[in-house]
Design brief:
Helix content: 25-40%
Strand order of the largest sheet: 1-2-3-4-5-6-7-8
CATH class: Alpha Beta
Structural class: alpha/beta
Order of helices and strands: EHEHEHEHEHEHEHHEHHH
CATH topology: TIM Barrel
Oligomer: single chain
Radius of gyration: 19 Å
Shape: globular
Distance between the termini: 31 Å
Strand content: 5-15%
Length: 314
């Protein structure tokens, strides 16, 4: 899997296909998608265009998608995967991830897609409806996707160390990937080490931290890691942007990164991080910025946004 991917969360449908084309033309081969992002049809349009233009072949692309919370029951896992494949216009996924260790009541495709978090938005008290499906049942259904040839690799997002220990104990097909939020304010070193000890690769979403969350009012402008002295000093020494320094820090930790952008110049900037190196001291200084600041925390946003308290991290 290419270690720098294009994150597709929050990309507007009207511009998604063009961003896919621009991204692949500029060198991206790793696309990080999900049913919940609501733009997989447009991602598929972009893929169709680049394949049709001969810019790359399907086998040159690494396409990831994710199983949403409402499809955790074994009888829904195959349907959800097939829906993503149809929307993306491809025959197989390189990687399919359980998006959250959160199981919600099933919402039919014809009722609402993507289903998002709230079961019935028209209800007097709209909220999440928890459907307690054991995680091992969902994983066994994920394994069957591999056996059917619909998915090359399977993995998980937003799991903690305890869930990883449990997953390894019952899985027949071992998880290939852990995808988590990680950036200099949330280094998650123990979790990353745990995953690697189990032979799992690690992908970091929101690798630039607060930038993904400011427009959602889930982060303040003064929480940008790009303004930190340790980052700016390294950027000045290397004649690079602060964003490039932070992304390079992620690579040198041995993780993949999936920054999101809709700007052509940033598409190029975010992947131009292979021709320089941070010093050991710079890596240490940036890592020491850790304050365990988690921006994507269901324990915070589910209660305020969806009237349901449902933490997954302590």
């Amino acid at each position: 899997m290419p270690s720098v991917g294009l994150g597709l969360w929050k990309l507007d449908q009207s511009e998604t296909a063009a961003i896919i084309v621009d991204g692949i033309k500029s060198g991206y081969r790793h696309l990080d998608s999900a049913a919940d992002y609501g733009n997989e049809i447009q991602v598929g349009e972009g893929i169709k265009q680049v394949l049709g233009q001969g810019i790359c072949r399907r086998e040159d692309l690494w396409v990831t998608s994710k199983l949403w919370n409402t499809f955790h029951r074994p009888e829904h896992v195959l349907l959800a995967c097939e829906k993503s494949l149809r929307d993306l216009g491809i025959d197989y996924l390189d990687l399919y991830l359980i998006h959250f260790p959160i199981s919600l009541k099933y919402v039919d495709f014809d009722t609402r897609y993507p289903p998002e978090w709230i079961f019935d938005p028209t209800a007097e008290n709209p909220r999440m409806h928890i459907d307690p499906v054991p995680l091992f049942e969902t994983w066994y259904a994920m394994e069957r996707l591999v056996e059917r040839g619909l998915v090359k690799e399977i993995g998980v997002c937003n799991y903690n160390s305890s869930l990883l220990h449990d997953l390894i104990a019952y899985s027949r097909i071992k998880p290939a990937m852990l995808q988590i939020e990680s950036h200099p304010f949330l280094t998650q070193e123990k979790l990353i080490k745990t995953a690697k000890n189990y032979g799992m690769a690690v992908t970091c979403f929101s690798p630039l931290g607060a930038l993904s969350y400011m427009e959602l009012e889930m982060a303040d402008k003064n929480e940008s890691v790009l303004n930190e002295n340790a980052v700016r000093v390294a950027a000045k020494r290397l004649n690079r942007t602060p964003a490039q320094v932070v992304l390079r820090w992620g690579l040198q930790r041995g993780t993949a990164v999936i920054p999101k952008t809709s700007q052509k110049e940033r598409l190029i900037e975010n992947q131009s991080i292979f021709d320089f190196e941070l010093s050991d001291q710079e890596i240490s200084d940036i890592s020491n910025l850790n304050i365990n600041r988690r921006f994507n925390d269901p324990g915070a946003f589910c209660e305020s946004a969806f009237n349901t308290f449902f933490p997954i991290y302590d």
